[in-house]
Amino acid sequence: MVDLIGQYHQIKSEIDEAIYQVLESARFIKGPEVAALEESLSDYLDAENVITCANGTDALQIALMALDLKPGDEVIVPAFTYVATAEVIALLNLKPVMVDVDPKTFNVRAKDIEKEITPATKAIVPVHLFGQSADMEDIHDLAKKNNVYVIEDNAQAIGAQYTFKDEKTKSTGTMGHIGCVSFFPSKNLGCFGDGGALMTGDKNLADKIRMIANHGQVKKYHHDIVGCNSRLDTLQAAVLLVKLRYLDRYNEARQFVAGAYDKAFRSLDGIKTPQRLNRSTHVFHQYTLIVENGKRDDLQQYLADAGIPSMIYYPIPLYRQKAFEHYYKGSPLPVTEKLCASVLSLPIHTEMDQSTLDYIIERVTSFFKI
User: Fold this and answer.
1) In this model, does residue 4 exceed pLDDT 90?
2) Is the pLDDT at 87 greater than 90, yes or no?
3) Alpha-carbon span 196 to 244, nearest angstrom
4) Do residues 197 and 232 lie in contact, with contact meaning Cβ atoms separated by under 8 Å?
5) Which residues contact 112 (CB under 8 A, 6 or more apart)?
6) What would the pLDDT profile of 305-325 be if each residue is shown by its tens digit?
7) Contact assessment for residue 128 and residue 172, using Cβ atoms and an 8 Å cutoff
8) Confidence class for position 369, pLDDT limits 50, 70, 90
9) pLDDT digits (tens, 9 = 90+) for 246-277
10) How far is CA 113 from CA 137, 268, 270, in A?
11) Are strands 121-124 and 149-153 parallel, antiparallel or unpaired?
């Protein structure tokens, strides 16, 4: 699905030098590369405050902790997403409220969120799934109307841009009260292990986030609040500083592959290609088809037999997971149910050569002509 070895070899000399400099300094925790990465991400995203942490899941947890939510408070999340989005909510004794998503973009919509807002609702967590933004202007207006927080789960869409009605453009992760990003190795901007970051335009929130991620302290051994230990290693920051310089190029490479897939598959009966929100760019963390007529699993096996990997993101709705089934008592959500039964993601990465791309296209096309 991704070629991390090929990507590394393209920038090997820069990566090796960056790692060497950290090894020579032995500043493995809070070395200068960490602060440099935060500043570089702030510039890239046009975000006022960036705070790195150990991983994307920690970023979500720290964001919720920073907002002083109380046990039993409700937080609205899409039912079609990775478990981490809801996991941290439950971990903090909050209540995840799961809603359906747009059948075209797979992202949560304001109109579906609005149905579930109650006096106990304190936050909304829109997920910018697969690489494009949720429709944030509508979500922002709804949140403001109901006086609730917005935490953006931007684990999959770093580098995507959203345009508001007034034609102002913002990066995903910078439109809510807090944005969260993951640097898991397979992400568009990935390190060589785990890593994450939070973004916020609120200086007070930023200061609190830093405290929480550092055991609740500003001054060593003086713990003003209960926090956690969530740091980005200096080695990972050094890797990310190099790869950040290539992020736009990486995203363009993904967009090229997506365009080729679109052109090849658009006229095929039995599949639907990914649709784009007209206000958002798409950086294609995943290229996800809808395979109709119950043939998804057959297509996946057909591709596997041809040596082509594919993945199902995600096969089970959050509310059907054993860990979360007691949070949801409503009827099955129709769009989420359909997507879980029909989506299939194809390889899409920065190092894909034309022959590999042509081979994948030929095999997918041939399946629907059998």
Assistant:
1) yes
2) yes
3) 14
4) yes
5) 99, 100, 101
6) 999 999 999 999 999 999 999
7) yes
8) confident
9) 999 999 999 999 999 999 999 999 999 999 99
10) 13, 33, 30
11) parallel
The single-letter code of the amino acid at 93 is: N
State residue 370's pLDDT score. Answer: 78
How confident is the model at residue 101, as a pLDDT?
Answer: 98
Rounded Cα distance, 363 and 360, in Å: 5
Checking if the pLDDT of 131 tops 90, the result is: yes
Nearest to 271 by CA among 369, 358, 128, 133: 369
3-class secondary structure per residue, the chain: CCCHHHHHHHCHHHHHHHHHHHHHHCCCECCHHHHHHHHHHHHHHCCCEEEEECCHHHHHHHHHHHCCCCCCCEEEEECCCCCHHHHHHHHCCCEEEEECECCCCCCECHHHHHCCCCCCEEEECCECHHHECCCHHHHHHHHHHHCCEEEEECCCCCCCEEECCCCCEEECCCCCCEEEEECCCCCCCCCCCCCEEEEECCHHHHHHHHHHHECCECCCCCECCCCCECCCEHHHHHHHHHHHCCHHHHHHHHHHHHHHHHHHHCCCCCEECCCCCCCECECCCCEEEEECCCCHHHHHHHHHHCCCCCECCCCCCHHHCCCCHHHCCCCCCHHHHHHHHHEEEECCCCCCCHHHHHHHHHHHHHHCCC
The answer, yes or no, to whether residue 108 has pLDDT greater than 90, is yes
Q: What is the pTM of this model?
A: 0.97
Q: Give the pair of three-digit tokens for residue 257.
A: 């592959």
* Contacting residues for 177 by C-beta, under 8 A, at least 6 apart: 67, 149, 150, 151, 200, 202, 205
Distance set, CA 154 to CA 18, 120, 312 (Å): 26, 25, 20
